[in-house]
Each structure stands twice: as C-alpha cells, then as structure tokens.
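FAQ: What does the model actually see?

It sees only this:
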Amino acid sequence: MVSYFKSILGILFFSFVSLSSSLAQNTFRHFSIGIGAGQASTFTDFLHSERRLFGYAEVDYYFSPYLNIGIEVQGGSIAGHGDQIISNFQGDFKSLTIKGKVHAGEFIKKPQRYVVSRESVGDKLLKGIYLGSGGGIFTIMNGTNSSESYNNKELFIPALGGIDMYMGAESRLLLNLNYQMNFLLGDKIDGSISPGSHNDLYQTISIGISYTIGGLTYL
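And it is asked to produce this:
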C-alpha cells in the first residue's frame, strides 16, 4: 500500500511539471472546494501503529494566492497494537478542523498587475510550499481495544506543511500534497490511559485536488 501511495505522489508531481504554465501567477479566486485521501497513523499507549486510509473534504477562503483559511472534515479509521498482537485497538474516526496556511509565495515579490511575466517550474514549486496550524475536534467511534469498547472526543492542534501546486497561471485546479501532525489535548483515542503516558498524537499524509470558484481578482 505504501509503494502504491508513493507512485500516486510521483504521478501527481510529474503531471504538475508537465502541465504547469510558464506564466506567473498574478490573479486568483477567493474560494475553493477540495477533496483528497491518504494514510493516517497514531502515537498512543500502544507502541505500534497501523497505517489506515482516510478521506477529507475542505472549503477555503483565499486572502491572496498564498494566504488562506479553511474548514476541513476528515473521516477514516485508526489502529495500533502492543508488542503482542492480542493487545490492540482500532476504531473509526472523524474530525473537524479550522486551519490557516501561509505559503512561501506570500513573501516573494509578486508580478506586476496586467504584465505578462514568466517563471520557472522551480519558482512555482517554491512559492507553493506552506506551513499552517489551527484547531479542531477529533471523535473516535466504535472503538475497541483489548479490554473494552469505547467512544471518545478530543480537542487537538494541527501542525501542517506541504505544497499547493496551481496547474497554470489562471487555472481553477490546485493540487495539494500535505503532511499533518495533530497534537491531541488528551490521552484517550486508544481507550487506554497508562500512568506517566503522554497525550496521544495522530498524523496524516495526503494528496488532494481543489477547484477554485469566484471571479478573478488581480494582485
């Protein structure tokens, strides 16, 4: 499964390189809707995590092509086990996140309005690199571990990084590669609390595509 996921990442990257326009990004649309999928794993009281699939949908508002806030909904499953397979947990999850992202392009000189300029694919990739954070709520449903069934909710703080890649200077399509570490404010997504244990974490890596909507706005 991991090798398959890496192959998809490679295909998306080279698709962007081959389709990307050489024109500089000097217009943008204020809204986008997107979907994607990837793998989720955890850091809990169970030492070994299993990678499970998840999907997401999101809506974003752009202050500029490189500064945005948005709401994201995720759904999938998580699982893990101890040194012995009989010690384990698994469950379905959903999460709701409000997050903001700032891209490197926000700090790079922007092209002049109405002036056609050209930039390399490398410049486009550099401008698309981003960092972000926010807040959210994580819910695990139908959870089971070695001793009980459970359902829990936790607040969390995400730390994310990745790259957004416009398919062209005025394209409505935006590809996304994202890594996200989520710091939960509790220790119960595995249904187990061990003395001296740390709060739980879960991480995701995903690929997605967004479609921008609204009229064109010039920088």
